[in-house]
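Issue 218. Parser rejects a valid record. Input:
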Amino acid sequence: MTTAHGPIDYSEGIDPERALKYALQRLCGDRAELIEGVVANVTPSWDHENAAEEIRNQIKPRVRALGCVTGSGNLDLPGSSNWYVPDLAVVPKELVKGAQALLPDQTLLVVEVTSDSNVETDRVVKRKRYAEYGAPLYLLVDRVEKTVTVFSGPGRLGYTEVDGPHSFGTPVRLPEPFGLELDTSGL
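Output the parser choked on:
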């Protein structure tokens, strides 16, 4: 095959992981995820979005003080068939300019809000993968069980520290570098 820049060299082969993730981004839209090799289109409900916004509003002053931004941009898990779009992530501002995707260990916090259709994915699969890829804090807002759990101490086998589950309405401590208490009554 030839392009405007000359022939494409396929002698090294095509990296299937890279090709799959590239296709996902180009063909499936902004909120498409790849979870253990399965494409999942994410269309959150307004109630779901409200829960993420409640968290965002509470942490925003601390996020600014840390020189970070919040968003739901792409997180790549290289070497796996996973490409996540968290409901909310906190990342250093200097990493976002021009970034197509970041890595979980580049975040300060990842937040997932469950829906009926993805509850086990957020509770089990993503929790395991975020820990494996070094996301320092994982906040699980489980709307099915009406609980909030903070996971920290990531490692290859999962998170070593778990605070919760706490029932909605119970204040939940978000550890450093945030060092604040979340009001979960509006979730």
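Fixed in the parser; the record now loads. The helical segments are 16-27, 46-65, 93-96, 119-132.
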